Amino acid sequence: HIDKSFPGVKVLEDISISFFPGQVHVLLGENGAGKSTIIKMISGIYQPDKGEVLINGKKEHLSGIRQAGKLGISVIHQELSVIDDLRVYENVFLGREIKKGGFVDAAAMIRETRKLMESIDIDIEPKAYIRDLNNGAKQMVEIVRAVSQNSRMVIMDEPTTALTNVEIEHVFKIMNNLREQGVSIIFISHKLNEVMEISDRISVMRA
Description:
Layout: E1 2-6, E2 9-15, E3 24-28, H1 35-42, E4 53-55, E5 58-60, H2 65-70, E6 73-76, H3 88-92, E7 99-100, E8 103-104, H4 106-119, H5 135-148, E9 153-157, H6 165-180, E10 184-188, H7 192-198, E11 201-204
Parallel strand pairs: 3-10, 3-11, 6-9, 9-10
Antiparallel strand pairs: 1-2, 4-5, 7-8
């Protein structure tokens, strides 16, 4: 029963929606229908004016992205958030560096990045600089970062917008791998062919 308003605009009114493990749940709707507001509520960027967010049946007050991350929620935004001047493994573990004896353990992070990539069938050199990758590979790094956090829910906000058909198929393969591992995926897309191919459930939001 979520309500959310901004000055002069009521974006969400009495919205109730459930997401389940091992499913791809697509959010559809025109711009302004509240899709982004919903995912920002789940990821702790916004707080509801009324209503509550339940995780495994327990009411949670999500005060920010960091807290949402601790609860197993990761977001892959349409706008890439990887840092060009860092290497792949540094982006994957940014803010969560593996340390040994008080120092950053680069070798351990490289090993873990390779393991994560193998687990979801991605082949990118962990020591490569982000600036040397194309957009599709950068999006893959975003996905690896989400997986590295042992996420129980991955929110994908139009991740295929700038990708080729081959890259989109690779993203879908990764989504299927995550689904088989019991991860809950929220997928936002305006491309109906993608929606019909990948979705288990669909919710249509109207402005």
